[in-house]
């Protein structure tokens, strides 16, 4: 089908052109081997929902590793989003609808995405994001409840 082929080509070119990378120090010590190990663990060829937690003391390079993984594999996804400082946002604002909107705006490359409330946002996540291969990175999550509140559970 010619129109489907054209659509696939346009989507592929759009992903290639949208290769905005996150800043990572030029030669961070010890990051490359950790990024390689994490990327192997993710096995992005699978179509499953995958979750990778990077845990450790502050200042050891978790965000740098997450950014490097995002930069390395992000172009293999139809949409992507990197949200910094979830813990800080949670403590000061706790407006989960705006976080949900930010993820969806990033993934679908738009400036606005209307969500009525938290539960409708979770439903949109389950329905829309499940139809596409997307990469969502949530940085500085310190409680699993933050992920569940934002995205819902896998059930």
From TrEMBL:
Task: Tell me which Gene Ontology terms the entry assigns under biological process.
Answer: defense response
Q: Which Pfam families match?
A: NB-ARC
- Provenance organism: Trifolium medium
Q: Where is the NB-ARC domain?
A: 34-147
The protein in question is named NBS-LRR resistance protein
Concerning InterPro entries, the annotation shows: Disease_R_plants, NB-ARC, P-loop_NTPase
A GO term for molecular function: ADP binding
Gene3D superfamilies according to UniProt: P-loop containing nucleotide triphosphate hydrolases
């Amino acid at each position: 089908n010619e129109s489907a082929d054209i659509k696939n080509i346009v989507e592929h070119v759009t992903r290639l052109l949208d290769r905005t990378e996150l800043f990572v120090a030029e030669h961070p010590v010890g990051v490359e081997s950790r990024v390689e190990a994490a990327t192997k663990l993710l096995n992005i060829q699978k179509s499953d929902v995958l979750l990778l937690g990077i845990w450790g003391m502050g200042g050891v390079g978790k965000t740098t590793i997450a950014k490097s993984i995002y930069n390395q594999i992000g172009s293999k996804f139809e949409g992507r989003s990197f949200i910094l400082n979830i813990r800080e946002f949670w403590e000061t604002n706790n407006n989960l609808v705006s976080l949900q909107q930010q993820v969806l705006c990033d993934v679908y490359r738009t400036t606005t995405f209307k969500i009525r409330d938290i539960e409708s946002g979770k439903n949109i996540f389950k329905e829309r994001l499940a139809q596409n291969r997307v990469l969502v990175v949530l940085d500085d999550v310190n409680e699993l409840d933050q992920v569940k509140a934002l995205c819902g559970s896998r059930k």
